[in-house]
Amino acid sequence: TFVVTENCIKCKYTDCVEVCPVDCFYEGPNFLVIHPDECIDCGLCEPECPADAILQDDDLSDEQQVYVELNADLAEIWPNISLKKAAPDDADDWNGKPDKLKLLER
Ligand code: SF4
Ligand code: F3S
Predict the structure, then answer these.
(1) Ligand 2 pocket, 67 CB below 6 A?
(2) Is the ipTM of this complex over 0.85?
(3) Would the CB of 34 count as within 6 Å of ligand 2?
(4) How many CB atoms lie under 10 A from the CB of residue 42?
(5) 15: which residues sit within 8 A by CB, 6+ positions away?
(6) Residue 97's pLDDT band (cuts 50, 70, 90)
């Protein structure tokens, strides 16, 4: 399955949701997640993310493993998103910034 990782936090460009054929993205205040049971592993979203935040689970680093559970858990409680919306005004400033996990809003 594919997983949204740290660099989406506070970037949330939402280009990913437009290409997903099964609409399996879910939206929180400043992060998106993929529902692991709904993702069909098509891979279309991965190259669309300007923040390179989407990875196949097999490609996650040890540090990124925490996002497997975060995607699964938050996809159960956040609302679905299937239409692209404007990114935060300061999204580009946050792209690539380290240590964003502590900034994740629920
Ligand atoms: Fe959707 Fe395909 Fe990305 Fe899975 S890999 S989230 S099905 S676009
Ligand atoms: Fe996040 Fe990238 Fe989608 S920043 S909202 S995973 S396009």
Answers:
(1) no
(2) yes
(3) no
(4) 12
(5) 48, 49, 50, 84
(6) very high
- The residue ranges of every structural domain in the chain are 2-83
Pair of tokens at residue 7: 């660099």
- The Cα 51–Cα 42 span in angstroms is 19
Ligand 1 pocket: which of 4, 19, 24, 81 to mutate (most atoms <8 Å of CB)? 24
- CA Rg value for the chain: 12
Contact 42, 2 (CB under 8 A): no
Global pTM value: 0.98
Q: Which ligand is nearest to the CA of 50?
A: 2
Q: Is 36 helix (H, G, I), strand (E, B) or coil?
A: coil
Give me the half-sphere count of Cα atoms (radius 13 Å) on the Cβ side of residue 17. 21
Domain made up of 2-83: CATH architecture: 2-Layer Sandwich (3.30)
